[in-house]
Input
Amino acid sequence: MIFRIFLWSSLIREMNNLTISTRAKLVVALIIVVSIIGVLIETAITKASTYYITVHELYSEGAAGMHHDTAVSGDIVGASVRWDPKTRLLSFSIKDDTSSQTLLVRFRGDKPDSLTNNWPVIAFGQLNSGGQFEATKLLVKCPSKYSAKDEQRTYTAK
Amino acid sequence: MIVGTLGQAAIRILLVVVCISIAVHVAAIRRKSATVRQWSRWCMVAQFAAACLASLCLIWLLVTENNWFSYVAEYTGQGLPIIYRIAAFWGGNAGSLLFWCLILTLYGAVVVFTRHDDSERMLPWVALILTCITLFYTLVINFLTSPFQKLASPVPLNGLNPLLQNPGMTVHPVNVYLGFIGFSVPFAYALTTLILGKQDATWLVVTRRWTLVSWLFLSIGIVYGAHWSYEELGWGGYWAWDPIENASLLPWLTATTFLHSAIVQEKKGLLKMWNVVLVTLTFLLTLVGTFLTRSGVLWSIHAFANGPLGTYFLVFLSVAFVVSAAIIVWRRRVLRSDARIDSVVSKESAFLLNNVLFLGSAFAVLWGTVFPIVSQAVTGHKMMVDSPFYNAVNLPLAVCIILLMGIGPLMAWRRSSLRSVMQAVLYPLIAAAVLGCGVAVVLYVGFHHTSLLGTLGIIAALFVVLTVFMEYWQSVNTRVLLTKESAWMSFVKLISRNRRRYGGYIVHLAVAVIAMGIAASGAFHVDVQKQLSPGDPPVKLGDFELTFTGMGVEKVGTDTRMYANIVVHRGGNTLGLLRPSATFYQDGQSPSTDVALYSRPLQDLYVVMLGTVGGKSAVFDIHVNPLVEFIWFGGYLFVVGTLISLWPESRKHRALGSAYHPVDRVLRQWSELEYDYHMGKLDQPEYERNRAELAAELEAAQSVAASVHARVQQDVQSYIAGSLDTSLQTGGDSR
Output
């Protein structure tokens, strides 16, 4: 019995000697925290990233570019902006700077304050068979000549 | 006209002075002569004088609306109030770069006249590094985008965008710039320390105030910018995670990390290398931010090729990165820690965790911001992320950081145990959970939303509020017991004797208040969009009832304003009339909407008129945002806390604080230990163990100090003896 107690106590003493150093514990803890953050970023980025194409690229996809979620970027054609507050329907054309092709975008929702000519916009939505882009979300840069304060705002269809 | 020529001459002179300064600083470093060092100081003043002259000329041109100059024509307009004409100085690209030179040279001229430990050896290097940074901006305004570019003939003034004709324009960019530029000073000191191979923390003590002031400016800039965008842009929110906002947040995150880890180096001599890396990172991120805003690279990849400025910034950024990284690697041995972390459960490791969380958040923001560029380069597809990504990563991290903000101050330095931490944390955490759930239930009743993350955020914030109050309460009680003063007297003396600690706690409190505002308004707000005609039944949102009574039109100068009258009721009481409006401009600029706000501490009613239908009815966007005012209140409290923390301490305390003797450091750790023990952060055995270790350290430090002292004395004696010999040999005439 006494022998057994001695054995146990010496074993515990050995365990105590073998405990990993503070440094190692800290390193392990920090690695765990860093990997959690890494996983958080990774999942969020795969879930929330969208890729966008230009008007020209959308047209060159042909029929393959229709009826699925896409994001298109282009510059607003100022003269084409129409907004009907009653139906809350906004329509405007966008064009690329590399080609002369334009795309008609229709969007139901708030009209951004800043639909000025030549202003860049990204529209999220689908190209329908009529060749119109039905947008569900717009990303518009706010107009500002103050380069220090270029804002961009998201408008979501409701 | 002469003013423009003078301005152009001034920026040329600035370039010349900067080049001469570099030569003088190098001479001051090599020659080690007091006269040359004095010259090096006056060179910094000369730089500031030249930048000042150029700035005055530009302001003069803007105020007098001299349309011979393209910068003036682009950024001012007929009848623009004088304050916005002055604001145009930092509003445009070329002007803001001159403003940058002005502030940087001002900071440089102030810093070289400071005196501190080893200042004679350090300041020429600091001046050299700051001048090299100034050189870049000076080259850009001289050869790339001069604000004094004269046109062949006068052109009509362009006018300033009405969205920007807001007092925010005079406050927000200036604060962000002051903050951004200020981080150059700690960066220059950090590099100097490395170059000179200094192991001590002098640079941290000297630059603490610079870092804190820059951080304060940047924080004010960010919060004010959010407030401005909330009141002006009319989309119902205050933060959209756009690249420009992120550009100001990134250095703020790393600077906050640095402020915390600097404490660990000051107290314990740990994390030396880490601090240099953090301050370098902060400086580089201010450059990244400026690069992102100036190059247009983020919105469209094509803009990159169009703007040479972006390329220049990228080159400067790369040079700064390579040089500082090379110096850090070259001198890595200098920065070995004096000690090591004694225990996993200690304030030191809490600081480490804080650093990892902040940097994780900064990395996520940076990654999201540059994601379009990276994905284009790697996959050929332009990918982008927006708010859902940033929220998904940063909100959970923010909740962890806020929880840690409550736990950290309750932990003891050196060695604490899980048990005593649990003991300290348990009751406030339970209380915060109960209160937080209560708040969430109230919000649910009012707004019919539930949100786990929002509730956790509120609980974490309440937990911080409770721990800060406990910390104050216990400190005052302990002080009353020890000194027999009145509670009020103790409170005042407590703060004034230890401004850093108690100012810091007020900042923590402020951040908790801001976090509560963000959590409640982000997770529980409600909104509705409705077309209304006169006579329609009232719209109910939250506990408000809004009745539309009709439209009106008024003239504002040359522009036309169309407004809607909305009567607001709550619980049978009439609260008043709200007038959301839209302004149509004579000059054909697209119309802008003006938000109508009914702000109360607990909730905001926010109404925007989106458009009109047939002149009689209109479409409205109505939001009720709970606790959003807390964000702005928190912002004010934040300023107060930082100012308390910044306020110079009395001479007696300063003398103690600036000495970096090993014995002093052990003594200071000892006083921390006594404080922690009195505050109940340590139990008896932990306290005794820590005290025994400190006693041993003190003895060791004292014996080292004694032997160093003896050796110095011996050296001095032999030196005096030697020089006496020489002077005797030379006949004593050298005296």
Notes: Residues 684-729 of chain B form the longest helix (46 residues). Residues 1-165 of chain B form one domain. Chain B has five domains: 1-165, 169-187+196-385, 414-523+634-647, 526-627, 665-729. Residues 300-306, 655-659 of chain B have pLDDT under 50 and may be disordered.
